[in-house]
Amino acid sequence: MAQLPLHGGKCPAWLFGRMRKLSGEISTIIVEEYGREELLRRLADPFFFQALSCVMGFDWHSSGTTTTTMGALKEAIKPEELGVAVCGGKGKVSRKTPDEIEKVSGVFSLSSKKVERLKYASRMAAKVDNSCVQDGYQLYHHTFIMSEDGDWAVVQQGMNEMFARRYHWLSENVSEFVEEPHSGIASERVESSVLDMTAGESEEARGTSLDLVRDCPTRLGPYVRKAGQLSLEDYCERSQSQKILVMPARHTIDELTERTMRALKAAYEIQPSSYEELVSLRGIGPKSIRALALVSELVYGKPPSWKDPTKYCWAHGGKDGIPYPVDRPTYQKTIDILKNAIDGARLGNEEKLRAVRRLHDLIEIKTT
Questions:
Q1: What single DSSP character describes residue 246?
Q2: Contacts of 58 (CB under 8 A, 6+ apart)
Q3: Torsion of CA 82, 86, 87, 92, to 10 degrees
Q4: How far lies 62's CA from each of 50, 77, 221, 223, 319, in Å?
Q5: Rounded CA gap, 362 and 367, in Å?
Q6: For each of the chain's 368 residues, which pLDDT tens digit applies?
């Protein structure tokens, strides 16, 4: 778990230009040293991602860390050069992700089958974090990082009234989109009650939810919320000068509205073969998922998980002047050193790149 308190401020243009250059050089070194898969693996690690943001000039708690870092990477990484591309972004740009995947797939010469699989992965990662992990954070940023090998990672972020939460995914870790799919979730705080239908503890609730849909949702009729629902006061009985609350043996579930029932009936007609397929269906959103989970617990005693699944450092200063303003000359020098090391290695002179490695080893020795 990472503590990520936020404070405001925008990324100045002069800093973003340097962030773009530095992130490009760092990405190039990682790909050339360790391969494309390693770059995806590191971006899917919330702690590496946070460290990368800090090295690029963002405080650990700066507003815009996720969106600006991914924006810089998207501009810096050239698909035709590294075999890696960043698709999507913030707000309306996130909705263009499928089109961008299609465009990049043309550069990578991926088959239509792989393209559809990648678009499905992007859509499901967003839907799972909006519907199956109900933590109160609404997604507003979605980036999909893909390689020419067909591997992928997702970095997306949600907001509630005051706080942000970042979700990381990595294709090599995802056997099922609805069961423990995250490589990490970074958040400032742990929420007291979160419906997590992706948790291992929710396996029986997922199975029961699927059975409820496949076994004709009309049986859920008694639980449908009616218009003008009664308040607690309406259940009170008077006994002399006292009011006694007398609740009925059966009650409705707020999420199981008539609109939700229509969506469940439509799903019944399709007869989904798995919980993942159920979640993927159009019309099955947070309310449908939650209603099925509550009925599963209430009627069949199969409770889902209600535990929150949420699971660095300065190099050049921070954009907000904490712990000190960004040191522009040092920042530029870092970019130049890395760029020269990469250029030299490509010309057959790897001494500068080996020097960067030796510096890394020396730092490790001193910190252990």
A1: -
A2: 11, 64, 65, 68, 69, 318, 319
A3: -150
A4: 11, 23, 48, 45, 8
A5: 9
A6: 445 555 566 777 887 888 899 999 999 999 999 999 999 999 999 888 988 887 887 654 556 788 989 999 999 999 999 999 999 999 999 999 999 999 999 999 999 999 999 999 999 999 999 999 999 999 999 999 999 999 999 999 999 888 889 999 999 999 999 999 999 998 878 888 999 999 999 999 999 999 999 988 877 777 665 544 556 666 567 666 677 766 555 455 666 788 888 999 999 999 999 999 999 999 999 999 998 998 888 878 889 999 998 762 334 344 455 444 555 676 576 666 667 666 666 655 666 556 656 555 544 554 44
Distance (Å, rounded) from C-alpha 124 to C-alpha 239? 54
- How far, in Å, are 201, 304, 306, 308 from residue 193 at the CA level? 15, 12, 5, 7
Instruction: Please tell me what DSSP assigns to residue 333.
Output: H
Q: Which two tokens stand for residue 117?
A: 């699989």
Using N-to-C axis directions, what is the helix angle for 65-76 and 46-55, rounded to 10°?
Answer: 80
d(CA 191, CA 256): 24
Structure tokens that stand for 116 in this block: 């559809």
Instruction: Name the amino acid, one letter, at 337.
Output: I
| Boundaries of every domain in the chain | 13-195, 200-300, 328-367
Exposed/middle/buried for 268, CB within 10 Å: 0-12, 13-18, 19+?
A: middle
* Rounded-to-integer distance, Cα 317 and Cα 162, Å: 25
